[in-house]
Amino acid sequence: MSTFQLDSHYGRFGGCYAPETLMPALIELEAAFVEARAEPEFRERLRRLLRDFGGRPTPLFHAERLGAEWGLDLWLKREDLLHTGAHKLNNALGQALLAQRMGKTRILAETGAGQHGVACATVCALLGLDCVVYMGEMDAQRQVPNVERMELLGARVVIVRAGQRTLKDAINEALRAWVGDPDAHYLLGSALGPHPFPTIVAFFHEPIGKEAAAQYREQAQTDQPDLVLACVGGGSNAIGLFRGFMDNPEVALVGVEAGGTGSAPGEHAARWAGGREGVLHGCKTLVLCDDDGQILATHSVSAGLDYPAVGPEHAQLAEQGRARYLSASDDEALAGFAALARFEGILPALESSHALGWLLARREDWRGMSVLLGLSGRGDKDLATVLPLLGGTR
Amino acid sequence: MTGRMKALLAAPSPGPGPGIAPYITAGDGGLERTLAVLHGLERGGAVCVELGLPFSDPLADGPALQAAAQRSLEAGTTPDATLEVIRSYRDQGGKLPILLFSYSNPLWVGLGGLRASAERLAEAGGDGFVVPDLPPEEADELCAACDELDLGTVFFATPRSSIERIRSAARASSGFLYAIGRVGVTGLRTSFDDEVLDWLDFVRELAGNTPLAVGFGVAEPADIRALAGHTDLAICGTALVNHLHNTAGTPEDAAASAQALVTRLSQATRD
């Protein structure tokens, strides 16, 4: 049956494991995406908005002090400088334009750390669309400033009290709402979910990697870095960054997931350490679940990495051996946060801090090499979490 | 197809209205209760049962069935134990066809994959599958296994599904085609007005020889009367699950309560 125009699978991962109640909307979305992607006017409008509203291209910053401290050549792709403070805007803007083109009047979105919710609320204000953001109660409590930002931008924030009250439950609720609302587009915030979402989200984040590869060649005067490193929750910033380097076998790709506080179930969100091949939220991928297939609780100090499955393209890249996926603990992430703050004057998001923390812990393995790290977001939103843990004068 | 399924598909209803096909969540109130309720449903005149295997993240379900799954999981229900209930029901002489209603992940992980799930269901005495997050596009493996093991498959049609999709879903369904009369999740009422009934007639025509079942929002005898002549089977889920949850007492009390509700529905078109 050829329901879709594009390949809906990433090897044995991905696919479209969606209820029939969602299938017509997914088919409609794919058709609209294929059409828009081929249309010069659409691409031009997106490019201009990313530039004039979003601030693309984002800089590639040579973090010389921290690099010297760690004994390596460190480059940061500064998605934290994108409007709203994280890479999420790339996808929010792209999908919102797509939704508008489809005649949708309302955007539904889930959010974990709140960055995707803020990006959606922002583009909806820009484009004059209604915006409803679903957010787990736990996440809303630890990301209060982002809840306030979304509301100031005119979005309605729906607090989800089901299940574990985090990102996965927010996705469940947003999908349920979409089923009953044909005027809405569900603006999924990571490169996961049923086809065509992983394809669409990765496409809109491709500028991260394309820019980074070109900027690196120009600024470092070398063909490529030895290592490209990014944090992986669902994996949207990582897939965007990896896409710029995937075809170059000289470049090692590493994704860093949340090691949390330990290796027991419920203490982490490390899918490659404890995940099984299964189906969650419409795609076949690695899933943290128990022997019965029930989805496990996860933990991470960072709300954006606190998710029990991962984008299917990452599952495929790992299986092919093209990318490796490793984890950093909460403590390692906090150490990474502190290091970047002190040595470079940048407060990184706790999500991005996982990539920094991983590198800090394994810097001897990469001594003398060049590392390009995706700084996916800024850390202002995390101060309430970080301050009690890292301490300070108070 | 098992003999039980064949008989059901050949004659879905004993009366003038649709056959009553209840949905219950396995292990809600404990598995002993589930087993008793299966017998109660049979005594009440149900023609088959959808037995829900509880899942932590049931994204096609509304709050009532989510809560039922949660209660069942908290009571310790597993996929293995759910199959054991089917086996016990058969051992005790239970005759109703039983379709296992499960999301994909418990089949992939809990029962060892789609093929292994089919083997184990057949061996336990089940009759088919309803997998809400497995559209025909992803169902080749399950369909092949079911075909080989004489189990039935069920796929869905909604008012937003294209004609082509409805035809494909009917073709892929060796059991019945499950029509959802409105957009949305389980648990909300559906008003079976002329528009919905016309759509059902249209779907029934597209389905050809595949029997039609209607679910989502079937709760009252009035719904059954409205559906008479427009569908072969009527699936009653949320209303029954809530009814059982609100019934205190022993497993036998729950069975009597289930029997009473199904009797009311199955008698609706015979008064």
Give a summary of the structure in a few sentences.
The complex is a heterodimer of chains A (394) and B (271). Chain A has 394 residues and is α/β, with parallel strands linked by helices.
Low-pLDDT stretches of chain B are none
**Oligomerization:** heterodimer
CATH class of chain B: Alpha Beta
Tally of individual domains of chain B: 1
Rounded to the nearest angstrom, the distance between the terminal CA atoms of chain B is: 33 Å
The CATH homologous superfamily of chain B is called Aldolase class I
Largest beta sheet of chain A, briefly? Answer: 6 strands, mixed
Shape of chain A: globular
Q: Give the helix tally of chain A.
A: 15
Structural class of chain B: alpha/beta
Assign a percent range to the helix content of chain B.
Answer: 40-55%
Helix residue percentage of chain A: 40-55%
Return the CATH topology of chain B. TIM Barrel
Summarize the helix and strand pattern of chain B as letters. Answer: HEHEHHEHHEHEHEHEHEHH
**Unreliable runs of chain A:** none
The chain pair forming the largest interface, with residue counts per chain, is:
A-B, 41 and 41 residues
CA-to-CA gap between the ends of chain A? 63 Å
In CATH, the topology of the largest domain in chain A is named: Rossmann fold
CATH architecture identity of chain B: Alpha-Beta Barrel
Using the alpha-carbon principal axes, give the shape of chain B.
globular
Describe this entry's structure for a reader.
The complex is a heterodimer of chains A (394) and B (271). Chain A has 15 helices and 14 strands. Chain A is α/β, with parallel strands linked by helices and 394 residues long. Chain A has two domains: 9-51 and 88-198, Rossmann fold; 55-85 and 206-389, 3-Layer(aba) Sandwich (Rossmann fold). The radius of gyration of chain A is 19 Å and the shape is globular. Chain B has a single domain (19-270), classed as Aldolase class I (TIM Barrel, Alpha-Beta Barrel). In chain B, 48% of the residues lie in helices and 13% in strands. Chain B has an eight-stranded parallel β-barrel, surrounded by eight helices. In chain B, strand 1, helix 2 and strand 2 form a beta-alpha-beta unit. In chain B, helix 2 (31-44) packs across helix 4 (79-91), helix 4 runs parallel beside helix 6 and helix 6 runs parallel beside helix 7 (140-149). The longest helix of chain B is centred in the last third of the chain and has 16 residues, at 251-266. The radius of gyration of chain B is 17 Å and the shape is globular.
